[in-house]
Input
Amino acid sequence: MISFEAVNKKFADGTTAVRELDMEIPEGQLTVLVGSSGCGKTTTLRMINRMIDATSGKVRVDGRDVRDVNASTLRRNIGYVIQQSGLFPHRTVGDNIATVPRLLGWDRKRVRDRVVELLDTVGLARDLAGKYPHQLSGGQQQRVGVARALAADPPILLMDEPFGAVDPVVRTLLQDELLRLQDELHKTIVFVTHDIDEAVKLGDRIAIFKTGGHLVQFSTPAELLAHPADDFVADFLGSERGLKLLSLTSLADVPVEPVTSVTESTPIAEARRAGDGWFLLVTDDNRPRGWLHVDHLPADGVLTDAEPIVAAGLSGNASLLAALDATVSSPVGLAVRVDDDGRVVGVSSPQRINERAARFRAQVLVP
Amino acid sequence: MGELIADVVRWFADATRWSGPEGVVQRLLEHLQYSLLSTVVAVLIALPIGLLIGHTGKGAFFAINLASFGRALPTVGVVILVFLVSGLNLWPVYVALVVLAIPVIVTNTYAGMAAVDHDVRDAARGTGLNGWQVLFQIELPLAVPLIMNGVRLAVVQVVATATIAAYISFGGFGRYVFDGFAQNDLAQVFGGAVLIAVLAIALDLALSGLQRALTPRGLALQRRRSNR
Amino acid sequence: MRWSWIPDHAGDLAMTTLEHSAIAAVAVLCGLVLALPLGVLAVRFPVLKGAVLGISGVLFTIPSLALFILLLPLTGLSYETAVLGLTVYTLVVLVRNTVEGLASVPPHVREAARAMGYGGTRTLLTVELPLALPVIMAGVRVATVMTISLVSVAGFIGHGALGQLFIDGFQRDFAVPVIAGVVITLLLALVADLALVATQHALTPWTRRGR
Output
């Protein structure tokens, strides 16, 4: 556990970056520090591994004042990932990942095995180990940055806007992978971002900072969205707070209803008998392709050639927000449900989804 | 002009010019001795200073201004001053050449250190490298190209300036310049100048080879890419 | 050590210092007049870049004394020889910095000027050269300090200004004029450098921080 007790940080130029901070960061959870620039979130993060020393107050890691630990020793036990990855350009990917294990004096074989293991963990091909950082894409570099931070299996991971410099598509991918990794590893992660959507998506808990170094609210994403502490927090959360709230609960409890589906290899003539309106086209192994209307079918042949209105399947993990979005995008107003292997199990209607949303609202909004 | 060129060609063609105690080979060895020894000493002094101010970021303003001030030191004055103090030996030459070479090496070493990406240095510290490890494993390798630029500039200046050794009666290619001047023999001055220029260019090429060899591969690839 | 030599020759020293400044100033100005067009050409026509930088680099490897002597058949033991020789040495720094300065102008600024209908010459004079000024001025500072120190080498051909003091002291085995020459040269370089910094500050208001 990481704790801050009455911590202040004043810089030499007189600006106060952090003011009277009291905060306990729970073990094994992902805590996001969020706020606009100059609010002290990065300073707060950097005080944990002593990249910056507090002016007053105590920062403790597992009960020990970080000031009592040698800075380099402390940092070797805390993973550190920054924007632009900060990879060493003159060292190969493998050597970059091996930095801390080598500092800790691991033998060659153990280091080599660990590098391979980590490349697998972060989803990079093993033959990238011999490449140099600039030969990689931005997303790959960021993965290497995460692998380097995880190398000696530190219990704590500090991430300073790690996905700030990659494009939105890659960012979403990296966020999903971080959540998957965290599911396996259960590290204590402190994550700094200025993007509230990223915070809501990733955080088990969110700390919102205000310019001048004030911690304004520290709570779970649901609590934050349902009960913002003041106007500043409400403004920061932005519009569509209700919809964002729906991104926090899953579709799992929404009932599945049957749907008329037809496989691709079905002859057109036979498909016409499926019904008199829309039906769901699925692949031969029962994965969703999209919605088709009997009136729009080609004259003959098989359905493989048909061009349906594409519909993605939602598993039980998908959020209510994603489910509502799917109903709005569907010509029949239904969200396609799939099992964990991606096979169609049925559909859910907006009415059922709204009932679930209402129950969730009742849980979190009741003061 | 044509006549001078012909004279210079004749000067070089003279077989006796090349060997013996006054020959080109002997003068080359002397010139190399003055230049290389001075450069090595200058590197030994300037490199640690440049690395230190680059690593700590302290004293940079002072050191850089001192270095540009050092550039203004007139070499002829330094040689004569040290000569008047130390008498007839090689000290005046070495002192003047070392003083000449230090500023450019300090400035370039500092520039190389200052050019190391802030994020990379931050990540190195954050990963748990201590001060010395950051300096020797991260900053120094990344600063190598600019440091070597400084050494190359210094060598070119030192080789050209080592001519001055002949003024206080020592050897090197400067002999031809001063003797030719005294004897009103322009061909000899020209020959000396050519030899010095060729030596400077040759050493510069050799050092650029060394620069390539010392530049970490990952960095060289990166620079090539960003130049494209 | 007879320090009284200095006050005894104060008038001479002042004259010599002025002469020294004049030679250096004229040499740097001539260098600038040559280097700016050469630099512009090198940037406009990349074919010329290697040649221009290469030739000025090779000239730099020739010992200054040899260059002065080799200019003798053309201009004799004269003031012109000293200025001409020194001008050649300023070129390597000034041309390289002009090229680097122009190359450092962000392409989007150049394109914005073109997009607003600026022609090539107008873009060069009103956009590119002003933006290249900090880098060019850095070159002028280095060239000035270097030239002030190099003037003394022209002492061997009789036009070294403060450099004459070194040869004088050497021949009379008397250190005071040498020390005076070295110190005045350093002070002169310092004053010139400060003046150039002030000039640059005045010429580039957009680079100043804050309000």
Notes: Chains C and A do not touch (no CB pair under 8 Å). Chain C has a mean pLDDT of 90. The domain at 16-203 of chain C is CATH 1.10.3720.10 (MetI-like fold). The two ends of chain C are 53 Å apart (CA to CA).
